[in-house]
Structure formats: structure tokens, C-alpha cells
Amino acid sequence: MTEVNRTPRVGGWTRFVTARPRLSLLAALVLTALAVLAGSGVADRLGSGGWEDPAAESTYATRALERAFPDSQPNLVLLVGAGGASVDDPAVAAEANRLTERLAAEPGVVGVGSYWRADPAAAPALRATDGHEALIAARITGDEKAMGETLDRIAPSYRGAHGPVEVKIGGIVAVRHEMQTTIQEDLVRAELIALPITLILLVMVFGSAVAALLPLGIGIVAILGTNAILSGLTAFTDVSVFAMNLTTALGLGLAVDYALFIVRRFREELAAGADSRTAIGTTLRTAGRTVLFSALTVAVSLAAMLVFPQYFLRSFAYAGMAVVLLAAAAALILLPAALVLLGDRVNALDLRRAFRRKRAGAPDATTASVTEEGGKGWGRTADLVMRRAPFFALGTTAVLVLLGLPFLGVKFGTADDRQLPSSAESHVVQQHIRDGFPGSPGGGLEILAEGSATPAQYADYKQRIATLPEVVRVDGPLVNGDKAYFTVQPDGEAVDEAAQGLVGDLRATKAPFDTKVTGTAAVLVDSKHAIGAQLPWALAFIAIVTLLLVFLLTGSVVVPLQAVLLNALSLTAMFGAVVWVFQDGHLSGLLGFTSPGSIETTLPVLMFCVAFGLSMDYGVFLLSRIKEEYDRTGDHDRAVRLGLTRTGGLITAAAVILAVVMVAIGTSRVTNTKMLGLGIALAVVMDAMVVRSLLVPAIMRLTGRATWWAPAPLRRFHDRFGVSEGGPTAPAEEIPGAGTETAGAPEDTEDTENTEQAEGTRDKATTRG
């Protein structure tokens, strides 16, 4: 570092966060306690849907049909099994009719019908082909919370044996309610898995138990604060229960990231002889700025999901931005206050000391020695990569592209009961219906006809749509005033390509009245259209704001372009694995899920935004340190080498900890959550261990000093508004050896290591993985 950076200088922000550290921590404790109260029971107020576009034709038609024809929109199904007998057996029929009458008398339940009371034309669709099972269908009224309460009230009295029949409960309401309950249970288990493992890894990274507990505290504050924010948001908008998983993962993961870099820099400054307040001042001016920029880049990626209409995606934006900003705020306010109070005691309770002494046979083994060996390892990696830069650049890119090829065969679908484990009751019911009942019960298309029409016009329209390809049967119309209702039974699966094509054919069929098509396939078609229409805007927003933030950090126009392109490339393995594993079903037995043969439409968008933000998080940490070294020495190759040397182990440690948290989330029994957790864990590991370690130094070696180029107007703009982790930039001509690198290999490794050692004791008490 330059002498300017070593000058004890305490800025306004440092004075603000450290003036009364005990008061700051007490205020944080009070606010956290209030957040616990505000966020308690938040899961019960969250929804389990949100995949549809609220402005789509299918959504309008569904709501209109619910109002005009509530009895024709069942969301509850009772699967009645007769054992070895026929469902037409008199005793079975009598018991089924008794259950039907009893269900019709339940408060909050309407539109009850059954195979035994159905119209002769519709009855075959409600009877299994083997004759041993049949259906009772009904509709539970109210919003998601009310429907869940009604289901909880009535389900126990219908589930199980009733004389000669056995009843299982399914339908959309049962699936969503069971999914919500499962997610809540899985989240508790994930936290119980992630917290102790994270603590162990932090002790391995820091050595000190005191330092290891600080990131966990920051993470817990961020998670509890976000739960309170989500609870408040439910008063104004729908929020998905799936967002709670992201809250836990990002809260712990980013808190660890931010605390790792701040605590590490603080320990460096203490080791260099600074007092606590001076060390905090330097830490906040350097690592603190990097944390702020990192949080902004992650928040930008998550904010892009706000452009989509589905509240499933918007929920992740709400939860993600809240937890990222809270984690950053806690790291930049609470953590400095705690470090000022701790001072040198941040290194207390070094749990690794006994192991180091036993292994090294030296009672005075220090953390610095471990750090130096790890740093030298990353330095040797950087030397190797930059000596063979074309090979590593092309080879790594080719491997990443190859791993992403399975995504070219992606098939999009909707989230259904197959998200649940195969043993879940609602999944069992829906699977029985898919496998054992004719056609696709519950998966048909529905047509809302609005406007006055004669019976002859209805009949003519029905005749024309019945002749369309892939149509098995057309029922209706049911008429209520100026509205009519048709049901169309497609041939095959409810959401296959043929059913989606049929949606377009039905919408293109002319009629003397207004028609709108809904149903599972129509919702999928509209969802795909909504995402496709907004995706370019989301990508443009992420790219433009990320380019601007990285430019403000580095002052280069080349580095931001490299960062965005390499970040996107780092996600190919994740997308390829998602299709190969979760769509095609490889490893389904090992991972314990049922493959629906498709990927839910919103999941790739969600995974891209989260994984891109996290990748940029690590990119900012690496680039800021490289930029600091380049400003200090003016030597591009040395800056790249030292940047990787000083952050490689730390980034890897942070990535491993975040991957552990995401894998814990990935133990969920809900397939979408499993896909999110395991997919992002893979993306994080690939980014830290492949892209940051191999591809970034190789590309930066190939671009050389041109990496830092910017046109003169932008240079002046950065001089005025930009920031960096280092201090004032020393002119290249004043730095011995600056600008002397050639197109050949980087400087001799031994010489570089000697230079590092001559820079003082700043790297002592630092852990880099």
C-alpha cells in the first residue's frame, strides 16, 4: 500500500458507525427483536402460486369462470378407491353418495359432483379405466389462506377408510397446501444443516471462534429483518413462500462473503500496527467500498425480476433485494462497531492452534504462515494460467460451452403435483388420475364465451372446435346470462406441445361472440409469452447497470465488458445440469425427485438473476483487489497475480460456504427448490474455482494493459465520480518497472514472492482458504 493509505485517517462514515459502538449494537439488538415479532408467522401469509401472468387472457378467463360458473371449477378432488370391487357396486356407490352429500354440506365448499351423480356424457372421465377408482370433485372458495384453512378443517374427516371405500385427497388446493407445508418444514431442516456446517467452515477459515461467529450474526440479522419486510409486503401484494428459501441462502451466504472481506482486511490492518479505529477506517475505505459495490451488483440482478408480471418472480426480487441490502448494511454498520469493541480480541479463541502445533511441531506456528503458503499456491496458479493464457482461455470456454449444450433441448412446463415427493398424498392422487383415468381429467382447456348468442350459434361454434386436431371431446355450453362455458378435452398430456398448439387453434377460431381460452396449457402459453416479452428488458437492465457499476469501480470500459460476458459464461454449467438432471431425469433416484419432463417456465429466469448476481459478487471482490494493485504498481501482470493471490483463497472459501448453504436448501423435497439450491450451488462453485481462477486471469493476460483503457471523457468522469478499493493512483512513470511487461510470460515467480514479502506484515493474520 502507499503511504497515503497508511496515514491514520478517520472519515465521516467511520466516525458515524464507531462513535458509540455499544449503542449501535444495542439498537441493532432491539431492532432485531422487533423484526422477530414482525416476521413471526410470515410463512402462513405467503402464497404457493404466482406462476401465471395476472394480465393474461387465461387469467381473466379463469377468474370470470370462477365468478359465473363456480360449480364448474373444481380445485378439490377425492379419489375414492373400492379396493378389489367395482365402483358400481351398490355398497360402494351408497358410501360414495353419502360422502358426496356430506361434502356438499360443508361451509366454504361449492360445486360438489361425483362419478355417481354425473351426467352420462361426463361420467366416463370420472371413472378409472380398471373400474376400481372414481372421483368426487368440489370447489373450496376464498383466497389461498381461507382455502388452506378449509382444507385443514375438512380433510381429516374424509381421508382414509369409510366402509367399503378408501379416500385420498388431491386437487390444486391440496397440492399447493401440501407444497407450502413441505417448504416450511424443509426450510427448518436446511437451516439446521447449514448453520453448524457454516460455523465449522468459518472456524477453519478464520481460526478464531470469535471471528467465525461474526458472519453468522450478520446473516441472522439479515434473515430476520427480511422476514419482517416480507411480512409487511403481504399487506400490499402477493408474496411466494418459495422466497423464504432465497432469504435464508442469501442471508447466510452474502453475510459470510461480506464479513470475510471486512474481517480479513481489519485483521491485516491490526497486524500492520494500526489501532482499532484506524484499522476500521482503512477497512471501510477499502473492503467496505467493495462490499457496497458488490451488494449493489447483486441487488441489481435481483431487481430485474420486478419487470416480470408473475408474483413468483417478483417475490424473489423483494426478498433478495431486502436480504442483500440488509446484509450489506449490517456488515458496514454493525460489524465495524463489533470490531472496534473487540480490537485484537477478534483473533481470540484460535481453535486451530493446537492442530497447527501438533502438525508442525513448532509451538510458535502462526496464522500468517498458513496464509503465505495458500497465497503462494494461488500465485503459482496465476503464473501457470498467464504463461498459458491462450490455452486456458480457449480450453475453459470450450468446456463451459460444452456443459451448457443440454439446455438447447429445454422444454418448458408448469409446476404441478410432481414438484412434491412421490409419497405425498396429493401427488399420489394426481398420478393415479394421470395414469388410470381416460383423457386428461383436470387438464382440459376451458373456453369463456361472452356476449349474447343464440343456441344455434353456440352449437355451430361447438361443432367447429370439435373438428380441430387433438380434440377428443367438447362439452357444454353452460350458459349464465351473457356468458357461456365450454370444456375441451385434448388428446394426450395437459401441457404437451399438442395441447399448447391447440390453445392457439382455439384462439384463432372465429366466433360470433368474444372467446377467451384458459386451462393448464393456456396458462403455460401465456406465461411463456409474458416472460419472452419482458426478458430482453430484464437482461438489458442487468447489463447496463452492471457495466456502469463496474466502470465506476475500475475506470475501464474493457473490464466491465469482460465481467458481464464471463459472468454469463459461468452459468452455462448450471443451465446444462438443470436440463440434464431435472428435465431428463438423470440422477432422479439418487436425488429423490420425480421428473415432469420439463422445466417450470420461471425457474431459468430466477436462477439466472440469482446466479449472475452472486457471480458478479465474486467478480467485484477479485477485480477491486486487482485494480488496487494496478493503481499501486502500474504493472498489469503483477496486479493480476497479486489480486488472485490475495483473494483466490478467500473467494473460494466464501463460495464453498455459500454452496453448502445452497446444497442445504437443495435437500428440499420440493423439486423447484431442490433445482434452485443445487443449480446455484453448482454455478457458484464453477464461478469461483473455474472462471475466477482460470478464465479471468487468462483473459486479462491476453488483453494486457488495454484492460484498463477508457476514452478520455470517461476517464475524466471516473476521476470525478469513480471509486476504488485502493488509495490515490500513482502515475505509472513514477513507479519503478511500471509498463515494462512484455508479451511473454509474467515476471519471475521468485521475484514476485520476494516483492510480496517486502511489502510488510499486512498479510499476517489473514486467511485465504
Structure keywords:
alpha+beta; disordered N terminus
Chain-wise SSE layout:
Elements: H1 3-6, H2 12-18, H3 21-39, H4 57-68, E1 76-81, H5 90-104, E2 109-114, E3 133-140, H6 144-158, E4 160-162, E5 165-170, H7 172-206, H8 209-233, H9 243-271, H10 276-303, H11 311-342, H12 353-360, H13 367-387, H14 389-404, E6 412-413, H15 425-436, E7 445-450, H16 455-466, E8 471-480, E9 483-490, H17 497-508, E10 514-519, H18 520-554, H19 558-570, H20 572-583, H21 588-591, E11 599-600, H22 603-633, H23 636-666, H24 671-703, H25 712-721, H26 749-758
Parallel strand pairs: 6-11
Antiparallel strand pairs: 1-3, 1-5, 2-3, 4-5, 7-9, 7-10, 8-9
Commentary on this structure:
The protein has 26 helices and eleven strands. It is of the alpha+beta class and 769 residues long. The N terminus and C terminus are likely disordered. The protein is elongated. Strand 8 and strand 9 form a beta hairpin. It has a five-stranded antiparallel sheet, with helices on both faces. A four-stranded antiparallel sheet has the order 8-9-7-10, sandwiched between helices. A two-stranded parallel ribbon has the order 6-11. Helix 3 crosses helix 8, helix 8 packs antiparallel against helix 9 and helix 14 packs antiparallel against helix 24.
Helix and strand content put the structural class at alpha+beta
Low-confidence stretches: 1-10, 360-373, 726-769
Q: What portion of the residues fall into strands of 2 or more residues?
A: 5-15%
User: Strand order, biggest sheet?
Assistant: 2-3-1-5-4
Helix content: 55-70%
E-strand count:
11
Sheet with the most strands, sense and barrel status: 5 strands, antiparallel
State the helix count.
26
The general outline is: elongated
Quote the distance from N terminus to C terminus.
Answer: 22 Å
Average residue-wise pLDDT: 83
As a whole number of angstroms, the C-alpha radius of gyration is 30 Å
